[in-house]
Amino acid sequence: MKLNEIIRESLNAEMKRQQDHIELIASENYVSEAVLIANGSIFTNKYAEGYPGRRYYGGCLNVDKVEQLGIDVAKKLFDAEHVNIQPHSGSQANAAAYKAFLKPGDKVLAMDLRAGGHLSHGFDLNFSGEVYEFAFYGVNKDTYYIDFEEVRNKALEFKPNMILAGASAYSREIDFNKFREIADEVGAYLMVDMAHIAGLVAGRAHSNPCPIADVVTTTTHKTLRGARGGMIFCKQKFAKKVDSAVFPGVQGGPLEHLIAGKTQALIEASDPSFLEYANQVVKNSKALCKVLMDNNIFVLTNGTDNHLLNIEVKTAFNITGKKAEAILESIGIVCNKELLPFDTESSVNTSGLRLGTAAMTTRGFKEKEFEQVGRIIVDALNNKDLESLKKEVKTLCDNFPIYNNIKY
Ligand SMILES: *Cc1c(COP(=O)(O)O)cnc(C)c1O
Known about the structure:
CATH architecture of the largest domain: 3-Layer(aba) Sandwich
CATH superfamily of the largest domain: Type I PLP-dependent aspartate aminotransferase-like (Major domain)
Radius of gyration: 21 Å
Bound molecules: pyridoxal-5'-phosphate
Oligomer: single chain
Strand content: 5-15%
Helix content: 40-55%
Number of strands: 15
CATH topology of the largest domain: Aspartate Aminotransferase, domain 2
Distance between the termini: 14 Å
């Protein structure tokens, strides 16, 4: 059978779109061609319920080899006692982690969505908010850093079964030891969701929660730059609970083609060049941050330690985050509006933007290019000549090609 024309055209159009814009969505990245090959491989045909060496289907010889390799590489890379690399996504990983450690109705203290938390951390419309009882901590109103006094006070008062650390929009290093102390003080499990920062952890540009927390979940497609999916790390004593929460708890057959894509990415992340990448991601986000701050834009926490920054656009430019996102998209810079902690705008409009540097670092951008991007953003939001800014973006993109020899 031939590839359907609409699919083919859309894939080629998407290739062009990805090539021709500057990607600042903090949760996106460009995987290697090797990861793409693994993702699109014949492993998609295989049922493999169970785990390597103990499957409920025959013929698992080859998928076993790859999944076991992924497990071994992941454990070493993240210094973890046990890992499950089957979760289909970050949200699925969280569902399984909760199921392994909690009963319906149990209490979890997590970061407020407004402060940078994630939907799967207890949002009312998410399964997590329906099944478990969540309470939330936020950030300090003056510094925008996680307020550990608030975390501790809420933990003492709420008596959670689990404390959850990790965020989707927090620009500072998270002190996992402080969370551990508080969890121990109140007798709670400590779970860390490192979805955003996993690539920085692998590249030694952020401290590693795996030796500290009882359970750590992640996505594999953000800073880690792998196939879309999730993973769960835990202490050996919880291995059985975690594995059976993933399968048969919340999933059936694992997606072995994506497990091959994750495994390839984990191998790439174990290469010394990945240390450089992770380090450059952080240097780039600091460079972008400096240009914006020099232009009197408020960056939350007054800086960044990781791959992202949250900026306030309403004060500097008198526009909403929604409008700012649209202006930038019109010149070829893609990012997302962000509801800021204490935001006075609605979640549809917002006062801010979230900007991330991982994807363009993969493409080869260094500080110099990010300083230019920062200046383009300032000029665009000040409504300078958008046509010439658009050309500048296109030239930058042309100088840093993505995939050279892929055509559908
Ligand atoms: C992205 C993210 C997830 C969810 O990942 P999906 O693969 O989109 O389900 C979970 N937790 C955090 C903190 C995230 O940033």
